[in-house]
Amino acid sequence: MKTVQDILQEKGHDVxxxxxxxxxxxxxxxxxxxxxxxxxxxxxxxLVGILSERDYARKVVLQGRSSLNTPVGEIMTQQVFYVRPExxxxxxxxxxxxxxxxxxxVLEGNRLAGVISIGDVVKAIVSEQRVTIQQYENYxxxxxxxx
Length: 147
Ligand SMILES: NC(=O)c1ccc[n+]([C@@H]2O[C@H](COP(=O)([O-])OP(=O)(O)OC[C@H]3O[C@@H](n4cnc5c(N)ncnc54)[C@H](O)[C@@H]3O)[C@@H](O)[C@H]2O)c1
Description:
Elements: H1 4-11, E1 17-19, H2 24-34, E2 38-43, E3 46-52, H3 53-61, H4 72-75, H5 89-99, E4 103-108, E5 111-117, H6 118-146
Parallel strand pairs: 1-2
Antiparallel strand pairs: 2-3, 4-5
Helix pairs in contact: 5-6
The protein binds nicotinamide-adenine-dinucleotide.
């Protein structure tokens, strides 16, 4: 069964982040530049929150605030769910479904080792299922030839 570590080996260990006192506008610029839907929020290297496009839509746009003078720390989600490298992709999917979240930071001890998104998890599950289907096809065809 594939693990978080397997996904990170394939996609890399990049972590796109901003400081809590950055403006929401600056965080959106990082998201656009890196083509991602969320950034981690760090303070002295410590994970203190996560800011997603959804946070922006609901806590800035809908509340009539301005991204240019709202600090990230004011609207970020402070309770960050994370995973460990040895956890399975099924565990990630369960956590994402239960908590209705789309990004999971990966922590190795206290160190940030990467980020896993729902797209990464779906891609890994589909590729695992493709291998299983191929194995069944080979088995069925192999048996057919023998008979
Ligand atoms: N084919 C692929 O390899 C693949 C993998 C993931 C996502 N996608 C596609 O991208 C689109 C959006 O994906 P999503 O909703 O999963 O989220 P997303 O756009 O936030 O994530 C896209 C990629 O960036 C990475 N990422 C996101 N935030 C990051 C951060 N702060 N630091 C470092 N890396 C970060 C994710 O792990 C993922 O690999 C979807 O259309 C999805 O299908 C494709």
